[in-house]
Amino acid sequence: MRRRLHACAIGAAIFIGLHAASDTGARPVTVSDLLSATSATDWRKPDPDNTLYLQLAGGRVIIELAPLIAPRHVANIKALVRAHYFDGLAILRVQDNYVVQWADPDKHRPVPVGVRLVAPELTADPGAYAHFEPLPDHDLYAPQVGFIHGFPAGRDPHTRTTWLAHCYGMVGVGRDDAAESDATEMYAVIGHAPRQLDRNVTLVGRVLQGIEKLSSLPRGSGEMGFYGKFEPLAPIVAMRLASDVPEASRAPLEVLRTDSAAFQEITDQRRNRREDWFKYNPGRIDLCNIPLPVRTAAPGG
Q: How does residue 25 score in pLDDT terms, banded at 50, 70 and 90?
């Protein structure tokens, strides 16, 4: 009940603020204003057992996994990470406006016991359909778009299927022409959302922090952005599950809940831009242009 009252208070405050701004010429409500009005219950802490730390020479990339969407691939990733499979490998491909990819290209490294090729997980379990949080905005690639378990997603009411969407920062597993994959090859989206990949490649999560460590890497000069023979690679120092890292060394991140009133208000603020700088207000927003606020939790929070 307290959470509902707080959500109503936020909605009322924003409603009053928006109309006051339009009536008096006051400064429009911003995302910062909306975030400052949130409470602790509007935020969630990612599960350490489903959070990856990809350590590059340039810093740490934090990835949240989606075991409720791709359980078999996530299980493979955890087994690979706990066997230190990715340690010492490197970024092999940086294609401009597309993806960053890492793997063992020559297949020299033995795959841990228990890791196997699994069928693609291109749509969520049927039970996830009811947990979908729809947006009113139209989309080119899906009859409906919104969020599922906090991840950007599409949904088809006719087939009652739900799937993750290839927005900026999403993480997937590579494959050959065959549909199966074992997660020994992974990629992160660093360009304009390649939504044509939706339901063609298994998505397993998304970057919460440190995407700039990947998107700022030198582009590969080879075909599809692969690094050439004489181009230096970006080494992977280590990849670990947060739950396997001492608590003092973990990043205390919090993610705004996509089922919160605050997130809905932020989405509406981005959909209907009222700042003086904007001369045209489209009144709609693309799924992949909705910001997902991530913050560092206060000490003791």
A: low
